[in-house]
Amino acid sequence: MGHTCFDVEITDKVGHIKMNRPEKANSMIAEFWNELPEIVHEMSASGAVRAVVLSGEGRHFCSGMDLSVFSASGSDVGPAASGGKHTSRRGERFRSTAMKLQDSFTALERARMPILCAIQGACVGGGIDMVSAADLRYASESAYFCIAEINIGMTADVGTLQRMPRLVPEGIVRELAYTGRKWSAAEALAAGFVNKVYADHEQLISGVHEIAAEIASKSPMAVWGTKKSMQYSQEHSIADGLDHIATWNASMFDTDDMAEAFAAQMEKRDADFPDLWAQSRGL
Questions:
Q1: What's the pLDDT at 76?
Q2: Are 42 and 5 in contact (CB under 8 A)?
Q3: CB-based contacts of 46: which residues, under 8 Å, 6+ apart?
Q4: Cα separation of 48 and 121, whole Å?
Q5: How many CB atoms are closer than 10 A to CB 275?
Q6: What phi and psi values does residue 115 have, to the nearest 5 degrees?
Q7: Which of 118, 167, 133, 127 is nearest to 146 (CA)?
Q8: CA distance linking residue 81 with residue 216, whole number of Å
Q9: Which domains does the chain show, CATH number per domain?
Q10: Which of 32, 124, 153, 198 could serve as 64's disulfide partner, Cβ 3.0–4.6 Å?
Q11: What pLDDT score was predicted for residue 77?
Q12: Contact residues for 103 (Cβ-Cβ < 8 A; gap 6+)
């Protein structure tokens, strides 16, 4: 199946989702918001994809929301936008659109496998919303980040302000959100927003694929359980988190995976774990 905004590959249980509009700095047009969650859901539901690399073609990872989306969401001002009456409908339409966009990135969190972002050049506006919802972030030296919404007179509303303060100190997020300044890859690394900085784009893609392959070699059930447990613990007390993981392991822990892991270590070979159960849209 062809996509307008993405090229998709799956190799050795690692998915690669590549934003493919470099001439537009991979800006997020209307099709983007439908295609991304659809691709991620299909990979997750298959049970056969164990890690995903999300990258962008060209000089820039993502320049954020394309201006055409603002027009499509009914963000024009004045009575004409509502046919001269019922102007409250414009607000309702904007809110519904914002929530749909939010859900497109929440799909990254719902996925049963980790999402790893490989970021070069600009990661602006919606780009930060997206990578903040991912599991891991890596950057080239050319990368920079910008919560750009403040520069066009609006408040970021697709996830940055909610997720980023869980990843780096809140004061850093406030400064970036209030000023709209560029944040370098080196600063992002020092704050812990990105895991590693690579010299160039080629080394970035190669390095992130190596990490994804390492994740894919582990028990997919154990990786999924780790992701779910950490997500749950972000929003609950330590006591609740401990209770959650005890319940998860009581129902989902696969002793056969542990036996295979031990056997592989003893026999000095790669472990061979079964895929996750494939999910059907109809069930």
A1: 45
A2: no
A3: 275, 278
A4: 31
A5: 13
A6: -110, 125
A7: 127
A8: 49
A9: 6-216 (3.90.226.10), 220-266 (1.10.12.10)
A10: 124
A11: 38
A12: 37
What is the residue-level pLDDT of the chain in tens, covering all 283 positions?
689 999 999 999 999 999 999 999 999 999 999 999 999 999 999 999 999 999 999 999 999 998 777 665 554 434 444 455 667 778 888 888 899 999 999 999 999 999 999 999 999 999 999 999 999 999 999 999 999 999 999 999 999 999 999 999 999 999 999 999 999 999 999 999 999 999 999 999 999 999 999 999 999 999 999 999 999 999 999 999 999 999 999 999 989 999 999 999 999 999 999 999 999 765 5
Nearest residue to 280 (alpha-carbon basis) of 9, 15, 17, 44: 44
Question: How far is 12 from 215, CA to CA, in rounded Å?
Answer: 12
**What is the helix (H) or strand (E) element at residue 18, kind and residue range?**
strand 14-19
pTM above 0.85, yes or no: yes
Report the chain's terminal Cα–Cα distance, integer Å.
23
Residue 149 identity: E
Query: CA dihedral in degrees (199, 53, 135, 41; nearest 10)?
Result: 160
Tokens of 179: 């000023």
Contact indicator for 148, 182 with CB cutoff of 8 Å: no
Token pair of 228 as six digits: 């779910």
Tokens standing for 155? 């408040």
Can you tell me which residue has the tokens 């719902």? 110
The whole-number pLDDT of residue 282 equals 54
Are 257 and 221 in contact by the 8 Å Cβ rule? The answer is: yes
